[in-house]
## 1
Amino acid sequence: MLLHHPIRQWLLTLAATVPLLLPSSVLAQSVSPVPGVVVMHGKGGSPQRHVNELAAALASQGYKVANLEMPWSGQREYDAPLDAAEKQVDEAIASLRSQGAAKVFVAGHSQGGLFALYYASRHTVDGAIALAPGGDPGSATPREKLADAVQKAHTLVAEGKGNDKVQLADYEGSKGTTPLHTTPAIYLTWFDPNSALGMLASIQRMPATTPVLYVAPRNDYPALVRINPSLFAALPRHPLTQYYEPSVSHLRAPTASIPEVLEWTRAVSAAR
């Protein structure tokens, strides 16, 4: 568990705000080697909601940043399967490297944090940043709430209707169960409880060489507050893996973590 001395915390906060006023040429000189970060929003969100301040702060510090709109955005409504989302991140990472990023990190908030862990467990990256990760299809409540929709999707696939767009269901702790329109085949890659997207499975697959910054807000949704310590404990014991607990809500986690993300990515970049 990472704790901050008050003076150190003040300096970190200052570092995240004051440099935004400096010329980009000066900021770029302060980051070496140049890190690249793929940023992913939460369920039903967008690059302009909740993660935009984090993405902007990283860019202002000279980082190469790809702030993506993923299939789980409110606009896209799961229009692509799990493997297509992996390819989207593959392409973003290739673009960051072509722009000069020497070290590359995947970062995500909520559902994006879950996906960042999943991606890092299956691909070579320099580190993963999980900001209030959530949305695990294998956890107890989603498994219960979405059981009928998952069964419907399996039935439709078996009937040869897996590519027909239909109404299924999504679940989020703050909103409950809501309608979702996608194809059964795509739906099952994201919502089947046995999907490879499961958080514990991703954590257990994480290479021992990949450090993780796990951000667990103290005021997160109760179910996530309960499960976060055990999930973090299941990660491989990389010396740079850290557990950070800002005293904020689920939605404020990305912005509140800006100083920690900057410090951690710089430490990882310098060490590797």
## 2
Amino acid sequence: MKNQYKIHQICQLYHIGADSLRYYEKMGLIQPQRSEGNYRLYSLSDIWRLNVIRDLLKLGFSTQQIKTYLDSRSVATTRHLLDEKEAILRQRIEEMKKDLQDLQNRRQSLEEALSEPMNQVRLRTFPKRRCLLLKEKIEHDEDIDYLLTKLSGRLEEQLSILGNVDTGSILEPQADGTVRCTSVFICTEDESYDFTLEEGQYLTLTYSGRYDTHDEHLRILQEAIQKRKLKAVGQFLEFLLIDIHETQRYDEYVTQLQVRVVAE
């Protein structure tokens, strides 16, 4: 038969399985004819409909929405469909622009973390930062990653899979010289937040390696506070600049300790 194609030809043309074609037929999206041997034969009209089905499925239209359009298409419904498609595409473009900006920001943050002077105490100024807080028992350093993931569920806009440099934990020095993580936090621009890190001068110390070396590095920071005749007026913070999100090598981890200070 002229201008009619068998199922294997359509599968090759659209790179889809025969099951998908049968499903489209079951849903009434296409209506192939039958040969004398009861083989499905697809016309040019079916191919046109498959083009529409493929394009609309990519945009998230349901099979029922597609069927409604195919069964009642007119200039008016086509214009309405084009308006819907344009709105969806514009939304996707905006989402992709944001994803691109997030990626570029993360790359810049990663490069800045790699360029941080290691094992040097520095006095730096930070603006006020809003934070979400999750206070739970932390027995192992690995718990921090789990709790940060749990906390990120509260954000209106989810954290990138590549992590976020404005995440970390609150450290509490113990009487025996050890350090305990009491909670985790995420800096956010959302209107909903739990506490703020006040604007001011912060004494910082950046180091590489596993989390579990924060005891010795915190002692270095405390000694620097005394030597510089400063006073800690905030909590000791541990920012995870590079962690499991970027590398599986512990020696490539980069952590920064921060504490707000004032002159004595």
## 3
Amino acid sequence: MDDPDRHYESTVEIRYSDLDTFGHVNNAVYATLCEEARVDYFRDVLDLGVHEISFVVARLELDYRKAIPDVGDVTIVVGITEFGRTSFTMGYELRYDDAVVATAETVQVAVDEEGSPIEVPTEWRDQVAAARTRVDDA
């Protein structure tokens, strides 16, 4: 999960309802933060709306490093770090007040309307390569 190829940044607002009885963000909310960043990534990098995304999350791994102590903005740096034939891996780094509070990795499988695995679209691979190039050139 230390892959540096995270080439997109999303900001997600922490709400009061995300806090638990200890006054910090509930651990389950971290997965939701990754989900929101993933949807933003697909919208902004791959130009796909939420109803055009055809994959399922097959695996989620979260490493908590520090509690998020209050409401505010979380910055999530994310990118597709690896492509397989029918799957792809995304890496995430969650930051609050300039500190890394968690890292995560998800594996998604591209699927058809019946939920059967299909090849990851070539267009997605090309658009991700272009996004990486824009970051490398910046």
